[in-house]
Amino acid sequence: MGAINTHFVPALDGVAYGLLLFVAAAGLTLLFGIGGVLNIAHGTLFALGGYLAASVSDGSWSSAFLGLAVATVGGTLCGGLLAAGTLPLADRGHLPQALLTFGLSLVGADVLTTVYGTDEHPVVIPKSVNGTVQIFGHVYPTYRLMFIVVASVLALVGTYVLGRTRAGALLRAAADDREMVGAMGYAPWRVHAALCGAAGALAGLAGGLGAPIIGPGPDTADKVLMLSMVVIVLGRPGSVLGAFGAAIAVGEIETLGVSISSNWAPYLLFGLMAVALVVRTFRGSSAVGAGAAAGAHA
Questions:
Q1: Cα 88 to the chain's mean position, in Å?
Q2: What is the Cα 189 distance to its own chain's centre?
Q3: Could you tell me the pTM of the whole model?
């Protein structure tokens, strides 16, 4: 019982941090798993959303909603620029995309540093959520609890849109057969642009929502990108549910894991990623071998 009390707050922090990583990584995993675009500048879009939300925050609810709107629009516009840059590289593999978006991330980081400086920017949140609440005898920040609720709703909405709507079906179809989507009357470049815009919007929104938790600063983009990549590796690219489960696992390792064993937590995170890569490689090899054997018997 004492251990539960000791680790309750870190465990709840892990849920909040994991949901933040989910919202941040959702756009990246959709863009990579469905659109086939490897966006190394994704962390920069997250940082941009955080900076924009922080720059308009004054402690009122109107400024909080304005900050989220500005962050989302800013991410969407950058996603449109990303679509224009990556469309000519759609059939050239991931290396040209990685080089292009890596260059864009360097330029974006320099621009953000020039505009906002090298210090972290505090976010002034409304007073009604800028306090603490009692949960099972533990004190917990109100904003983080509210964030858990909001991010959970976003996860449900994202799962519904991708799995149950016509727009989601179109995106999945574009990933499997671009020519078929074109034959249905949908220009593939428009689907590509919509996917990049949606991924950018998610990154910007995540940056705005997460700014009070991960204050926007010079290291924010790199940290978010690294952890988002881990989420993609642990989860299945293109799967919202896979990204959700992986993000919660990463969040718990980063908080509860550190609380239990600060020395081993970092090794556990990247150890899990290595195991996931090995298992997928083995399964891929087994599938290829089974296919070759079936062809030989035929």
A1: 24
A2: 23
A3: 0.85
- Tokens 């004492």 label which residue? 2
Contact 230, 17 (CB under 8 A): no
Distance CA 219, CA 238 (A): 27
CA-to-CA distance for 209 and 81, rounded, in angstroms? 23
3-state secondary structure 46-86: HHHHHHHHHHHCCCCHHHHHHHHHHHHHHHHHHHHHHHHHH
Which pLDDT score is estimated for 231?
A: 87
Mean pLDDT of the chain: 83
Query: Taking the domains of the chain in order of start, what are their residue ranges?
Result: 2-297
Whether 283 contacts 50, CB under 8 Å: no
Give the whole-number percent of the chain exceeding pLDDT 90: 31
Is residue 48 predicted with pLDDT exceeding 80? Answer: yes
Per CATH, the number for 2-297 is: 1.10.3470
Contact 51, 57 (CB under 8 A): no
Where does the chain show beta strands of DSSP type E?
132-135, 138-141
- Total Cβ atoms within 10 A of residue 270: 13
CA distance 134 to 120: 29
What is the rounded distance in angstroms from the CA atom of residue 218 to the CA atom of residue 211?
Answer: 13
20-24, 64-68, 160-164: range with lowest mean pLDDT: 160-164
Q: What CA–CA distance (Å, rounded) separates 147 from 177?
A: 37
- Identify which of 232, 269, 233, 276 has the alpha carbon closest to the alpha carbon of residue 253: 269
The length of the chain is 298
> What distance in Å separates the CA atoms of residue 232 and residue 243, rounded to the nearest whole number?
6
